[in-house]
Specification:
mainly alpha; two-stranded antiparallel ribbon; 8% strand; globular
Length: 492
């Protein structure tokens, strides 16, 4: 990303740049005129094929088109003394790529041998081949990154278990992702692994040994068992499982503080638990149901369940305003606009959207089709515009993180799609994802039968039926209010 320009100063630099026309310091005088520092840097990085057939750096201009040095007469040193290629030079007459390669070898080579261990060669190759070498060099020269790579170079083995034994950090997980993406480490479900590590620490928060064993069983036979049978652990499952166990631990510690065992639990205890704390305490209902089912808590007890339909949703007017912002403003970049369309127009869950691959998207001259959950969503103009932009420039292709990624929405972590939580945060500039999705479903149930909406949007009929019931109730209340106003006699 180019550095932002300072404000031009016509008083100090009265002669404008021959290329951009702005008043900045002239750093070179080329055949087409004086060139400012910003245009000089841009010229060194302009690559392509000149009209004469030369491929490489095109710093000059001929008839307004980029041209090579011989054709334009521009004198500029862009010849790397190490590899001989034309490229922007970093230092010592060497290009950024050669400097990066030397830096990688210096960090990953074993001091006793002076060579990179065979198992780390794929990682070294990937780091050296980054398309944006200057960004790679900036990242790798950070003190904590360099220190981690040096430590990795002398590690006795490169395994997930060895990585787990290192101090937890973003650098550790990023390098782990690179090793997985480039075939050094086998793929594993990282959210499942993170949950297992979290669960071990969570058990330490249980004060009573008997309750600690109970929570251990709850984690193993309820949450981890479900994760084992799933194709993969989603971010939502990961967060809900953590929250469920956290509230269960709080509940058991609350009972311990009152001298009550779970086997002695009474309805009065549950009522007091919910009355004394926030509404999140009702989540203990998940643990309670499991405890009753496993005969560790008395049968017949219940908590007041969460009332459905209380989550905020966008009104029809708010939806229309949000749609107009998504389609006709630059408030969101193409990636976020593409996500927003599926959420606010078609009521799709953001977790499913985040995990789309290009195998799920078909781009033709007439239409863009997106397959979500076995259904096809057609995106005509103007809904297709951000998807077409995204298809032409998916992003995150200049580093070693996504060498052959098929994700539509590539994340910062190597080989992984963007997190749904990050997408939600991005969309808040226009709307809250859940409120938008609920508003869309609420409005659609007024317009079409439940079965058609369920089939079209990929929801279960029961889910759409619930939204239809809420919508009908709201409409009935509106009608009753209007009738009441008409029935009220007017004075005068």
């Amino acid at each position: 990303m180019p550095r932002p320009r300072k404000a031009e100063d016509p008083t100090r630099w009265p002669v404008p740049c021959s290329r951009c026309g702005q008043h900045h310091q002239t750093v070179a005088n080329w055949p087409d005129g004086g060139v400012c520092g910003y245009c000089y840097q841009q010229a060194k990085r302009t690559r392509g094929t000149c009209d004469c057939g030369h491929e490489g750096i095109l710093p000059g201009l001929v008839d307004g088109a980029p041209a090579c040095r011989p054709c334009s007469g521009v004198r500029l040193n862009v010849d790397c003394t190490s590899c001989g290629a034309e490229d922007e030079l970093h230092s010592g007459g060497r290009c950024w790529s050669c400097t990066l390669a030397d830096t990688v070898d210096g960090l990953l080579a074993r001091p006793t041998r002076g060579t990179v261990a065979p198992e780390l060669v794929p990682l070294a190759t990937a780091l050296k081949s980054m398309k944006r070498a200057n960004s790679g060099l900036t990242w790798i020269r950070q003190e904590h990154v360099s220190a981690f790579l040096r430590r990795l170079a002398v590690a006795p083995s490169v395994t997930h278990e060895a990585f787990d034994g290192l101090p937890d950090s973003r650098t550790r997980e990023y390098v782990r992702g690179l090793l997985v993406e480039h075939g050094v480490l086998p793929r594993r479900d990282e959210l499942r692994a993170r949950y297992d590590d979290w669960a071990k620490e969570a058990l330490e928060r249980v004060g009573d040994p008997e309750n600690r064993e109970l929570v251990r069983r709850y984690i193993r036979w309820h949450h981890q068992r479900r994760m084992n049978h799933a194709d993969g652990v989603g971010h939502g499952t990961f967060l809900r499982s953590k929250q469920s166990v956290t509230v269960a631990i709080d509940f058991l510690n609350w009972l311990t503080h009152r001298g009550t065992r779970l086997a002695e639990l009474q309805q009065a205890h549950l009522d007091a638990w919910q009355a004394e704390g926030p509404t999140t305490r009702e989540i203990a209902d998940r643990f309670l149901n499991w405890a009753i089912k496993t005969h560790t808590a008395p049968a017949g007890l219940r908590m007041v369940p969460h009332k459905r339909g209380t989550s905020p949703r966008l009104s029809a007017a708010q939806q229309e305003e949000a749609v107009q912002q998504v389609l006709h403003s630059d408030l969101l970049p193409p990636r976020d606009r593409a996500v927003a369309i599926l959420v606010i127009v078609f009521g799709q869950q953001i977790e499913h959207v985040a995990a789309l691959t290009w195998d799920d998207v078909a781009v033709t001259d007439e239409l863009v089709n997106v397959r979500l959950g076995g259904i096809e969503i057609a995106l005509p103009a103007p809904l297709d515009a951000p998807w077409r932009e995204l298809a032409s420039a998916p992003g995150h292709g200049l580093t070693a993180a996504h060498p052959n990624s098929n994700w539509v929405f590539r994340g910062l972590s190597p080989g992984r799609h963007i997190s749904s939580a990050h997408l939600r945060q991005r969309l808040r500039a226009v709307f809250r994802a859940r409120a938008a999705r609920l508003g869309t479903l609420h409005e659609l149930t007024r317009l079409a039968p439940v079965a058609i909406i369920a089939e079209t949007l990929g929801y279960s009929p029961a889910t759409i039926e619930r939204h239809a019931t809420d919508s009908a109730a709201a409409y009935s209340q509106y009608v009753a209010t209007r009738r009441g106003k008409r029935a009220t006699p007017q004075n005068g």
